[in-house]
Amino acid sequence: MDIDRHHIDRFLKNMFPDLTGDLHIQKTTGGQSNPTYILSYSDRVYVLRRRPDGVLLPSAHSVSREFRVQKALEHTGVKVPRMVLHCEDESVVGTEFYLMSYIPGRVFHDNSLAGVDVTQRKKMYFEMARMLAKIHAVDIHKVGLDTFGKHGNYFARQIHRWSKQWHLSKPSDNRHIDHLAGWLADNIPDDDETTLVHGDYRIGNLVFDTKLPSVVGVLDWELSTLGHPLADLANCCAYAWFLNSDEYGHGIRDLNLTEQGLPSIEEFIDIYHQESDLKEKLTNFHLSFALFRMSVIFTGVADRARRGNAASGNALELGKVAPKLAQRGFELTKQKIAGV
Predict the structure, then answer these.
(1) How many CB atoms lie within 10 A of CB 125?
(2) Partners of residue 206 on adjacent β-strands
(3) How far is CA 58 from the centre of its chain?
(4) Of 243, 251, 256, which Cα lies nearest the Cα of 328?
(5) Are 309 and 332 in contact (CB under 8 A)?
(6) pTM of the model
(7) Strands, DSSP E only, in 165-295?
(8) What is the pLDDT of residues 293-319, one digit of tens each?
């Protein structure tokens, strides 16, 4: 275990004198961002998320932002864990961290929802779409998140940011990513919506009810900010319908969706719009942007793995997937831009 059990136990029992029993720690797997641990006592369970060790890129892995956004959402229709505390004292577990409640339920890291009854899979995807619409419908002024990010020009700022990150972490040149950076900058749509965006909304960051197809928790808010809702929708779609089942993320691009009881991308988007007031449609621009951004993020994770401070052992696998996503985004730019 890469955190000191006795140290965190003393800290928590000092903060919460009514805690009883021995502390048991389990490090979760599957994530590529902030290391996450389940802390169990005899009478309660917490989840701890901390910044990774080592040298990080500027502004990366801000656990304080994760804590702030989830705290603001506690009394909205968005399902989030209850925030317990935020600690900047790095001596406790080695880096800044926060503590939150544990949400029991089912977490899937396979977009095909293998192991789930085929008749339930579409329902779970549709609940995922509805929860995303709820995130975008949050009144950011009412919950105190109107200063959580910049307003307007989201795509221009994001394209600049991820282009810069690409040059900081790229192992070699990639003509597809370079093309995407230029093409996206030249094809930004005129509409300029600003809502809360999750930034990494996908199956693997959701907790589903133990039996029902409903979403009971939305996790991993590290990349959340104020931005364009279609960027969130496109990112969610890219993880499912633009990744193959044998690639990291276990997408559904190469599966027979009907046989597997899975929705088409068009069905998923239609459910989202039934719950949303957003009038603009998802286009190849938004999907290309999502694939560009994912390519850069995956490259960055692989770069951290090479430097020895990635949160997950399979980080290098992302470095192999990144060029494929960039190529798929490049191919979309050669097609007619049309609403899905």
Answers:
(1) 24
(2) 218
(3) 19
(4) 243
(5) no
(6) 0.91
(7) 195-197, 206-208, 215-218, 225-227
(8) 999 988 887 777 766 665 555 667 788
